[in-house]
Design a protein that fits this description.
alpha+beta; two-stranded parallel ribbon; two-stranded antiparallel sheet; 4 strands; 28% helix; 17% strand; globular
Length: 83
């Protein structure tokens, strides 16, 4: 959505906590330090509205990208304004 370098941290939304078992099968593991993937179970399904597939990845709607990036670390505020 913007022309910035890739983030070192990816946020992944899942419908249910059951998906965490599938991620463990792929060698994902919880850790307190050095994380590079945030797995999020949203409080409501609104996060999945307007999802589009880009380069084989399901991406949230641009209207959700802005508030998420604005609260994110790294150069996220700059990227949020770009979006």
């Amino acid at each position: 959505m913007g022309r910035y370098a890739a983030f070192r941290i990816a946020s992944v939304y899942v419908h249910h906590e059951d998906a965490l078992d599938d991620l463990r099968d792929l060698s994902f593991r919880p850790t307190d330090r050095g994380t590079n993937v945030w797995v999020l179970v949203p409080a409501d399904a609104g996060v999945f509205q307007g999802v589009a597939t880009k380069n084989g990845l399901h991406c949230v709607a641009p209207a959700l990208v802005y508030p998420n990036l604005h609260a994110h670390s790294e150069r996220a505020r700059d990227v949020a304004h770009e979006v």
